[in-house]
Design brief:
With 225 residues, the protein is of the alpha/beta class. The protein is built from 9 helices and 12 strands. It has one domain: 3-Layer(aba) Sandwich (Rossmann fold). The strands form 4 sheets. It has a 6-stranded parallel beta sheet with strand order 2-7-1-10-11-12, sandwiched between helices. The chain has a two-stranded parallel ribbon with strand order 3-6. Strands 4-5 form a two-stranded antiparallel sheet. The chain binds adenosine-5'-diphosphate and magnesium ion.
Length: 225
Amino acid sequence: MRGIFITGTDTAVGKTTVGIQVAEILRESGQRVRVRKPVETGCEKRTKIDVLEPSDAVRLQAAAGAVDALEIVCPYRYEPPVSAEWAARLTNRPLELGDLHAACLKGVSDDDFLLIEGAGGFYSPIARGALNADLAAGMGLPVLLVVADRLGAVNQTLLAIEAIHMRGLALLGVVLNQVAEPDNPFLDNHADLQRWLLAPVIHQAYNSHPDLKLAPWVRNWIREA
Ligand SMILES: Nc1ncnc2c1ncn2[C@@H]1O[C@H](COP(=O)(O)OP(=O)(O)O)[C@@H](O)[C@H]1O
Ligand SMILES: [Mg+2]
């Protein structure tokens, strides 16, 4: 099956932001994109009937052209802003890795391009006794690692990549994402990371959209996938 698993070195590094861009580029390239954010925490109650709105999933769904209902994109939603494993435990109905695996595959056919966003970082707990890494390994898709471009990024990236390789997964590349306005003129994480890695490192500038570097890179994967 063709697809990617989008993970991060941490939460709030830009997984959804990058995922939306990748989904749009894939669509523009003629792919039918199925996005899955199988579990989302920190959801807000938007209506009086207690429906939880998964904001990442809503935006990913739109970026993919709304080919799937929101219930398919994100079937497991929780209000507390904690790890998915913990949020599920608070409801007294533990979430199993198999539930998430099934949710990722539901409605997906061989012609589709599956784009999955995990929850938190690569080693964040996502289901009972399971990490994002376990879901990624179960899906067997190549991994796109998103990293916040700030001091410490080299350490976090190299640690995450070692973990990705330990699960036997292919690393598509790293998106070094400028989540805040650059404030350190001495920092060049892009040059530093490229020195350590064979995989491509794409720098995503602050508030850049659409991203010019991401598009040719994504089109290249499609050709190779
Ligand atoms: N390149 C960027 N420029 C400006 N803001 C960004 C950029 N990437 C992410 N952000 C912002 O950072 C926050 C976290 O991004 P998000 O994509 O939600 O991260 P994650 O999915 O990893 O939790 C959001 O408010 C998002 O709008
Ligand atoms: Mg997100």
